[in-house]
Every structure is written in C-alpha cells, then in structure tokens.
Design brief:
Blueprint (H helix, E strand, L loop, with lengths): L3 E2 L4 H4 L6 E4 L23 H12 L2 E5 L4 H11 L4 E3 L4 E4 L2 E4 L12 H7 L2 H8 L4 E3 L11 E5 L3 H10 L5 E8 L13 E7 L4 H11 L7 E5 L2 H4 L7 E4 L5 H5 L6 E2 L4 H22 L4
Helix pairs in contact: 2-10
Length: 291
C-alpha cells in the first residue's frame, strides 16, 4: 500500500477511537539539537508543546517510544507532564513508574542485562570489527544502556545481520533507527544512520502491543508517529501509523505497511497528527447520543 497523505487519511482515521498516541522523540517530537522548541531547521516553534497541551486536554495520552534510555525518558516525561514510556527501541518498558527489561531471545545466562550480553558474547565486537570504518558507537549517547548497543554508521542492516547469523549470534540483530543530521565523513560519503544492536524478539512494535494489552486496549484505541523504519514497525500494533514528512523515506523501504505521511516535519508533523486525532475525538463525542 502506498503512503497516504494526511489530507486523504479520513477513511483510516474514522475507524479509530484513539486513547493513546505512541510518539518517537528525536526527529519526530523534537527538532534540531533535540529541542522541543525548534524545527529541523532550527527555527523557533511552539507547534510540539502546543500539541502536547491539546492532546492532554482532549484525553489523548502521549507515550514516548524512543531509542533513548530509561533515565533519559524519565526526565523527558517529567518535563513534559507525561507518564509511561518505551525506551531503547522496545527493550525497556516504563509503566506506572516501574521499568521492565524486555529480553527477547537473549540467552539469560550471559549477563545481567541484554546490553551486557551483547558485549560479553562478542556480538557487538563482531559488528564493529566486520564493518570497521563504516560503523561505530554513537558517542556520547552509547553509554549506560540496559537493552541495546547504540551505533552510528553507513551499513546495510540486512548485510550485518547475515554476518551475525553466520557467526552464531542468531539471537541478536541490527535495526536501522533513522537518519542522523550532520556529517560523519569518516564513515563514508552517504547518509549516516543511527542503529541499535538488540535482541531478536524486541522491538518498538512488540512492546507497544504488550503495553496496550496490559491496559486492555485494542489496536484501534492507539496510533503511532515516528520518522524511521523502527517506528514504522509499530503499524503492526496500532490502528493508524504516521510518519512525519522527514521520515517519509522509510515508507519506501516497507511499502506493504500502511502509513499516513504528514505535510510537515518533526514537531510540526507531530502537531498535525495530534490535530487530526483530537479532531476525530471531538467529532465522535459530538455524535454520541446524550445520556
């Protein structure tokens, strides 16, 4: 299915009864320099914070779903007045103030956390050695992680995963988490992406689905918005999947998944998603019979 422009998405949105919006953070909710008050071009904007207020007033709960760590999301949620979150591409679920690590297919006898297992087993070293000069730790944000190894580079995740399987690490895989801004010429001439090395069986989609199940919510009670391939997987868990304009390229990689693309990038696109969802909520409430 081809990507649907937001202006043509009414038939999809009409099937929703949204209570939860899963939102990626970097490149989706926040713009340049990870600022809530800036677009990708650095221009000041109140689009995202105004949309967070609108969502709260409408009863639409925003749940951050990010590659960031639990402490990073904890502070972000405190600042934004949010509660639950999913960190490290699904490896950490934070609900009601409690964090739970998602192990996936990680062998439990290797280490105390999946992140330690990836390092101690040699899986991380295999990726760094086999693709030396093309991938490296995404410093300084690669430390203090529980579920994944955070990397940046110019590699094909499928090619890396073939090597991991050949080396006996079939429980680990590399996932593309989207394009990075800025240049990393020492890694190659192309676009540099952020990557997570994480256990098979762990993803934003699976943890989002688990979160909804624990709350007793069907998929049509939720939507998701992001800017990369790892976000697009959440289409399997929710009633409507959005990509902000700067992430529209991800839809071309996975044309089988239905996705709605916003006209604007980053925080502006996030605001457009919130506006569409809260608009339908208001329509549904107005159409409901009085009791």
């Amino acid at each position: 299915m081809a990507a649907i422009p937001l202006a043509e998405a009414r038939p999809v949105l009409a099937r929703l009864r949204p209570e939860v919006l899963f939102s990626d953070v970097d490149g989706t909710l926040v713009g340049r320099s990870a600022s809530l008050l800036a677009g990708l071009d650095g221009e000041a904007t109140l689009a995202a914070p105004a949309a967070l207020i609108a969502a709260r007033r409408a009863g639409l709960e925003v749940v951050l779903v990010s590659g960031r760590t639990r402490p990073q999301l904890f502070e972000a949620c405190r600042l934004l007045g949010l509660h639950d979150a999913i960190g490290e591409l699904g490896a950490v679920l934070v609900r009601d103030g409690k964090a739970e690590i998602q192990w996936g297919e990680t062998p439990r006898d290797l280490a105390a956390t999946p992140a330690e297992a990836l390092e101690r087993s040699g899986a991380l070293r295999t990726v760094l050695d086999q693709f030396a000069g093309r991938i490296e730790p995404h410093s300084p944000w690669h430390t203090d992680r529980q579920g994944t190894a955070l990397l940046r580079g110019q590699v094909d995740a499928a090619e890396v995963n073939e090597i991991l399987r050949a080396k006996g690490f079939d429980w680990a895989h590399l996932v593309d988490n989207g394009r990075l801004r800025g240049g990393y010429p020492h890694l190659g001439d192309g676009a540099t992406h952020s990557f997570h090395l994480l256990p098979v069986g762990v993803s934003k989609a699976r943890t989002a689905a688990r979160y909804l199940a624990e709350r007793g919510l069907a998929s049509d009670r939720a939507a998701a918005v992001g800017d990369g391939p790892a976000d697009l997987e959440m289409a399997d868990a929710v009633g409507a999947m959005f990509l902000v304009a700067n992430g529209a390229w991800a839809a071309e990689r996975d044309p089988a998944r239905p996705v709605i693309v916003t006209p604007s990038s980053a925080g502006g696109g996030f605001a457009e998603v919130v506006g569409a969802l809260t608009g339908f909520l208001e329509e549904q409430r107005s159409a409901a019979p009085d009791r």
